[in-house]
Amino acid sequence: MHAAAVEGVPVPGTSTSSSAAGASVDDESAARSIALRLLESQPRTRVELERALARRGVPRDAATAVLDRFAEVGLIDDEAFAQAWVTSRHTGRGLGRRALTVELQRRGVDAQTVAAAVSAVSTDDEEVAARALADRRLRTMAGLPADTRMRQLVGMLARKGFSQGLAVRVAREAIAADALAADALADDAFAADAVADDAGAAHA
Fold first, then answer.
1. What is the pLDDT of residues 88-125, one digit of tens each?
2. Where are the alpha helices (DSSP H) in the chain?
3. What's residue 143's pLDDT?
4. How far apart are CA 19 and CA 27, in angstroms?
């Protein structure tokens, strides 16, 4: 009868294969549980899940096995993720193609998938989004000098991922349109005052 083995050292004539297999099963079970919890909260890319599992100490081979299986059954789909991300962030936040590209790259989506998803946003889509953002911001900038408004609008649009050329053009046109609207309101107010004065004079 063999003497008791020191922990971690197998008794002569025995095998470590069963314990290794058990450890692998446990690692994959842990990886599966962690990944499912993360996916329940929000969609994630494969790289995001890989990073999360690595931070939690899950061995790479166990993580790969689980994530491969998730991809097979559709629980991980970077292409669908990228398409949904572009739709949500462009429609909801007004982001331009450059900003969308950076965000997807940070989440580990490969360049080809990013390009395909971002291509859904056309040049016209970008211009419409940029104009809406500029008009909305202008409403909060009453009283500021034109050059200050121009600088702030261009900076805001650049941060949203629009090209410098588009940002400058849209900002300039938005400020010009705002000035025309203000002039029209002033003319209407002047005309209304003139009509009131004429009516008052007629009754005098």
1. 999 999 999 999 999 999 999 999 999 999 999 999 99
2. 17-41, 46-55, 60-73, 78-93, 97-106, 111-118, 123-138, 146-159, 164-203
3. 85
4. 12
Q: What is the pTM of this model?
A: 0.75
Cβ atoms within 10 A of the Cβ of 72, count?
Answer: 9
The answer to whether the CB of 12 falls within 8 A of the CB of 2 is yes
Q: Residue 133 corresponds to which tokens in the numbers above?
A: 């953002």
CATH 2.80.10 fits 77-121, yes or no: no
Angle between helices 78-93 and 111-118 (to 10 degrees): 40
**Distance in angstroms (rounded) separating the CA atoms of residues 197 and 87:** 55
Neighbours of 115 (CB within 10 A): 14
12: its two tokens: 């002569």
According to CATH, what is the number of the domain 28-76? 1.10.10
Neighbour-count burial of 133, counting CB atoms closer than 10 A to its CB (0-12 exposed, 13-18 middle, 19+ buried): buried
* Rounded Cα distance, 9 and 5, in Å: 6
From the centroid of its chain, how far is CA 65? 28
pLDDT tens profile 55-83: 999 999 999 999 999 999 999 999 999 99
Cα 45 to Cα 70: distance, rounded to the nearest angstrom: 11
